[in-house]
Amino acid sequence: xxxxxxAQTEISVVEKEDVTLDCVYETRDTTYYLFWxxxxxxxELVFLIRRNSFDEQNEISGRYSWNFQKSTSSFNFTxxxxxxxxxxxxxxxxxxxSGTYKYIFGTGTRLKVLA
Amino acid sequence: xxxxxxxxxxLVMGMTNKKSLKCEQHMGHRAMYWYKQKAKKxxxxxxxxxxxxxxxxxxxxxxxxxxCPNSSLLNLHLHALQPEDSALYLCASSxxxxxxxxxxxxxxxxxxx
Lengths: 115, 113
What we know:
The complex is a heterodimer.
Chain A lengths: L2 E3 L4 E5 L4 E3 L2 E3 L6 E7 L6 E7 L6 E3 L2 E6 L4 E6 L8 E8 L8 E2 L3 E6 L1
Parallel strand pairs in A: 2-12
Antiparallel strand pairs in A: 1-4, 3-9, 5-6, 5-10, 7-8, 8-9, 10-11, 10-12
Chain B lengths: L3 E4 L2 E4 L4 E8 L5 E7 L6 E7 L2 E5 L6 E7 L2 E7 L7 E8 L8 E2 L3 E5 L1
Parallel strand pairs in B: 2-11
Antiparallel strand pairs in B: 1-3, 3-8, 4-5, 4-9, 5-6, 7-8, 9-10, 9-11
């Protein structure tokens, strides 16, 4: 069975602090894909990153960085120097590959960045 | 153009009404999705269309009826809904296959009275 766990329900930080959102997944597939989405209060899910199971390189995009570790089945997301606009719910999702369309979503982490 | 649009933004309907939600994308994607999202929960997949054909129905009640008139449009017809169907309904599109990221619309916030 596939599963995604985001153990942090809600995190509050003060602006300019760094924050890491955890994502742990379970799958028996050898090929799989991991995603992060941001859902601001407006409701739209915004795609942030996709990572496939064969690419363990970490990625940095501006203030955002992602750490993928197959050994611990984790795909963590770090925001450096957080800003109020980063306040949102962040979802991690897992997909089994070309034969499936279904995302397995984590329960989401609500991030509040206080000014 | 990486936008998925949805209309209406908000919808209030009675339990005997018939209404439709509309979704449009111009990214050339051939997979389109309907999700339902309740407050403080992740989105739940309802339907998937692939090449304009229904490929997944996640055991959704028949009071929800999807339609894909062409590769850019996706509708969700609503009839005889229940108050517990009140939720945010999200449309998404992607290239065909689970390896691709999905692009979501802003959603329709539905209230059933």
